[in-house]
Amino acid sequence: MTARAMVIGLGSPDRGDDGIGAAVAERVQGVVGDNIEVLTREDPTSLVHAWHGRRAVVLVDSMISGAAPGTVSVRHAGTNDAPLPTFAFAAAGRGGSHAFGLAGAVELSRTLGTLPEHVAIVGIESKTFDHGPMSARVAASVDNAVAAVCAELESAGFPTAKANKPRR
Amino acid sequence: MTHQLKDGGQVLNVGMLARVEGEGGMHIEIKDREVISVKLNIFEPPRFYEGFLRGRKYTEPPDITARICGICPVAYQSASTEAMETICGVTTTDEIQLMRRLLYCGEWIESHSLHIFMLHAPDFLGFESVLEMAKDYPDVVNMALRLKKCGNDVMELVGGRAIHPVNVKVGGFYRMPTLTQLEGLRADLERGLEDALAAVQLVSTFEFPEMEQDYNYVSLRHPDWYPLERGTEIVASSGVRFPVAEIGEHVKEFHVEHSNALHAHFDGEKFFVGPLARYSLNFDQLSPRCQEAALKAGLGETCRNPFKSIIVRTVELAYAFEEALRIIDLWQDGHAPSVPVAPKAGEGIGASEAPRGTIWHRYKIDADGVILDAQIVPPTSQNQASIEADLRLAAQQWVDLDDHTLTHRCEAAIRNYDPCISCATHFLDLRVKRS
What we know:
The complex is a heterodimer of chains A (168) and B (435).
Chain A lengths: L4 E6 L9 H10 L6 E6 L5 H4 L5 E8 L8 E5 L10 H4 L11 H11 L5 E8 L10 H4 L2 H14 L5 H4 L4
Parallel strand pairs in A: 1-2, 1-3, 3-5
Antiparallel strand pairs in A: 4-5
Helix pairs in contact in A: 1-6
Chain B lengths: L1 E3 L5 E7 L8 E7 L2 E8 L7 H5 L7 H6 L6 H15 L6 H32 L4 H7 L1 H22 L8 E2 L2 E2 L5 H26 L13 E4 L11 E4 L4 E3 L3 H4 E4 L8 E4 L8 H8 L5 H9 L12 H22 L15 E9 L2 E9 L5 E7 L1 H19 L5 H13 L5 H4 L4 E6 L1
Parallel strand pairs in B: 3-15
Antiparallel strand pairs in B: 1-2, 2-15, 3-4, 5-6, 7-8, 8-9, 10-11, 12-13, 13-14
């Protein structure tokens, strides 16, 4: 039976802080039950069909907003939420695959009717996308990011071992 | 954006060129309704891959060069492994070659389905991007995403990863997929083949601008099959043909002032690599089913209208599905994933057919396998002169169109090549100057 909730770690594990999505997904795998599918993806176009049919999806990705590296923030992008800005794709170049990012995937999915009702994007403020390991502050944010993922699953009605434990 | 110049000329600045892999720019100058200058301006700094391969081990190029491009890494891996095996005097097994071909089918499926439906089709259907196109053509975009996923799945299973595969080595693979795993791809591939064949007919109904050039097409050729992962010789529509090892004697790279990506000439003239060239020089090697689909779509056995490259690319997409299924039909478990390759001093060339055209690598290594020299020649670099020639013809042929329409037509002419500017280099900005 298809799991009704899904956690997706997005990004390239080779490119510095872009590896945070996969790192968090790996940790989440250990604290959720079989009712939640956990996967990693590098190609944003694959999201459009990957999450189709799920009621709730938590997506984990690196982000740049100007906050301190390692800062964890959450944005909602489900069917009832406001559209994401796709200017990076639609205006700044109506780009090739290079410009097709997470926002493009969400909005294409919305148009095609494959977007889940609940989509939470857990973003981890990043510092470096060079080849190599994650920066220290981003690597140290994994626990907070995992907690944020579990809290989002919980609020969508999918309890996890982590979310049920009192936080110290 | 249009700028009036002091000399009465006009510059139309469109900004970043859309729907190509990477970014870049173009400058077209028109005076008294005559096109006087066309330049593909590529000003991204060189990426120095050839430089930093020197001093590395002969086993490293498949992993290092795969990082040049996220959409065609297998092309780099195939050319580099073949070059090293040629230098070291090693012939791999038929099964390793089959698995390489299957991996390459995955790349063609992934790259072609992306370009055909998400980057190129909006030109013919009148949309700025696939995001707008999806509102009116959701079935087509859903199909494109399904097809692309099939390519990703093949890459993941055979290559270990959908982007920048990690399972390729000089001598073969680190491990072979099992027949059971391969059979798991079958249902999606069968559906993909039917979808791709239907798509050939769909794209053939688009309206195509009338434009033809007497291109010198250049492609790999193999006596037994349509060229993908390797060939035995290079053939040209000029009638020239020679073993792959001699390509460096015919294709010469050179620097032009307005581009940081090297241009290239074939026997001193511009030339054209890519789906149109492959198709026109290897139609007889396509499967009967793909030949039939092509002819039914109105193509001849050769095609010289670059705008119809979208039909040819879709025929190749169907062929890649058919080949993937044929290889799975042939597969049996138990074959060694690789053969040993001991270093041997020498120089050699490897070539393959990237989704956007012939790519070739030349390496020189010493007796310990240390790379002394490296040369990487990707398809978009080789096509730059032909792209400029198409732009010159397009701008002249449609000079009376308004700036917006002319600019769009010129952009579409560039997209006919599915250029990978990231491979050649980066960044572009389209300008038309009239006076």
